[in-house]
Automatic annotation (TrEMBL):
Entry-linked InterPro entries: BSH_CzcB-like, RND_pump_MFP
Membrane-traversing stretches: none
Coiled coil: none
Name by which UniProt lists this protein: Efflux RND transporter periplasmic adaptor subunit
Organism: Gracilimonas halophila
Length: 456
């Protein structure tokens, strides 16, 4: 009985203690004070309008620019090199002399061949006259048939020797002429293998000459990109680490098969316009425009929010990742609304939106991380979205003083001397936005502690 009376008394005291005024000190309800809707956190965000413009699906790959034809110049005779007439980078014409090979031996061979031709010609004339004489004598029965046959054989042999001597002369003349190495095309010397005094031998490359008829770039693409590229598509080229387009071209040839070792397909791009920075051997990024759309809705990649879900496929007993993308839209500049998107063409950091947005929507581009559908937002722009040291934080002089004389959210720099303020601003240089906010919060707490100790 005593225990029951004690419990009733304790319960009565507890109910009385929890009763009373339901409002806070400033008339605020306990619901609001303890996390109700009236106290919901507001996130400061920045918004942009949706871009309406053109966007292109592109294939990008790096390749070196080179001449369409690179000719290997090889000496036709073997001997010591006595002189070079051109060097690397020189522009040459077709038939221009490039180098000289020692020619004394070939000059002697040419002289000897000419002598043999002259001797053969004299023998041919002699045997020809003898054959004609024997024919006339045979017609008058003044010589035998055997003598005529001998004269005829001698004549035929002289003809053969004369033709052989002429062939030897032609070869000797050709060898002598080849002691001067000449360019077979108009172009630029891109390689030289030997030096003066080296032995040039047939079948060994002496020069490489790039034809100036045109330039091309060869790239190797994975199967998806290789399949999408078509002959005749336009190509923009830029040198690595440069933003401007340095050359333009078209897809002129495409390999009908993939390389069995690398799995890549070769695509040849012929340059149609070149700038001063384009020269053989330079590395360029080839940007091939596959498809292009006009008046498309475009959002920046940084505004997208990615959701990844793990899905177990019971048929294959594998785990698949399903990715969905959304953006947050500002509704009335006070509420964030999540919109699921269907995406299309991607071009760098710009992405086409096929469905999920309207042209007049304002998408949140800064501060969307951590937002939820229906979250309260405050759209900030201009000086309201600057770094803490560039604007005044919080209230004004008309706000009621709380927290020992400080207005709620007052800038702690306002309570400092000019020297202290300059020192604080110097410390905040180079800090991120979160670091600056934390630094200012520490200053407020320190000032509050100093004010409390002073009042006590």
């Amino acid at each position: 009985m005593k225990k029951t009376a004690f419990l009733l008394s304790f319960l009565s005291i507890f109910i009385i203690s929890c009763g009373g005024n339901n409002s806070g000190e400033n008339g605020q309800s306990n619901f609001s004070r303890f996390g109700g809707q009236a106290g919901q956190r507001t996130t400061s965000v920045e918004t942009n309008e949706i871009e309406i413009g053109s966007i292109a699906e592109q294939v990008r790959s790096y390749g070196n620019v080179k001449a369409q034809n690179v000719i290997s110049v090889q000496p036709q005779v073997s001997n010591r090199i006595t002189e070079f007439y051109v060097d690397l980078g020189d522009t040459v014409r077709q038939g221009q002399a490039l180098a000289k090979i020692y020619d004394a031996t070939f000059r002697d061979q040419l002289t000897q061949a000419r002598s043999q031709v002259e001797q053969s010609r004299i023998a041919l004339q002699r045997d020809s006259s003898e054959y004609v004489r024997q024919q006339r004598l045979n017609e008058r029965d003044l010589t035998s048939e055997s003598e005529l046959d001998i004269a005829q054989a001698s004549y035929q042999n002289s003809i053969a020797q004369f033709e052989s001597a002429r062939s030897s002369l032609t070869q000797a003349q050709e060898n002598f002429n080849n002691t001067v190495v000449k360019s077979p095309v108009n172009g630029v010397v891109v390689s030289r293998a030997l030096e003066v005094g080296d032995i040039a031998s047939t079948g060994t490359e002496l020069f490489q000459i790039a034809s100036t008829n045109g330039y091309e770039s060869r790239i190797y693409l994975p199967v998806q990109d290789w399949r999408a590229v078509k002959i005749g598509q336009e190509v923009n080229m830029r040198i690595s680490n440069e933003s401007e387009v340095n050359a333009r071209g078209i897809v002129s040839r495409k390999s009908p098969q993939l390389d069995p070792t690398t799995g890549l397909g070769e695509v040849v791009i012929t340059l149609t316009q070149t700038g001063d920075a384009i020269y053989p051997g330079v590395l360029v990024e080839n940007v091939i425009n596959i498809t292009r759309k006009e008046q498309a809705m475009i959002v920046p990649r940084s505004a997208l929010v990615e959701q990844v879900e793990t899905v177990i496929n019971p048929e294959t007993n594998t785990i698949d990742l399903e990715r969905t993308y959304s953006v947050f839209v500002s509704r009335g500049d006070s509420v964030a609304e999540r919109r699921e998107l269907d995406l299309g063409i991607e071009q760098g950091d710009r992405i086409e939106v096929l469905a999920g947005l309207l042209p007049g929507d304002k998408i949140i581009v800064t501060g969307q991380s951590g937002l939820e559908d229906g979250a309260r937002i405050s759209v900030a722009s201009g000086d309201r979205f600057q770094a803490p040291e560039e604007r005044q934080i919080g209230g004004n002089e008309d706000q009621p003083a709380t927290n020992n004389g400080r207005a709620p959210g007052q800038n702690p720099l306002a309570n400092m001397s000019e020297e202290e303020r300059a020192e604080a601003r110097e410390k905040m240089q180079g800090m991120s936005r979160e670091e600056r906010m934390a630094y200012l919060r520490d200053l407020r707490e320190q000032q509050a502690e100093n004010a409390d100790s002073t009042s006590n």
